[in-house]
Amino acid sequence: MYQSITIVGNLGRDPEMRYTPSGTPVTSMNVATNRKYTGSDGQLVKETTWFRVSVFGKQAEACAQYLKKGSTVLVEGRLQSDLKTGGPKTFTRQDGTLGTSFEIAANTVRFMSGREGGAAPAAGGAASGGMDDLPVGNEEEIPF
Question: Using CA atoms, how far apart are residues 8 and 92, in angstroms rounded to an integer?
Answer without folding.
Answer: 27
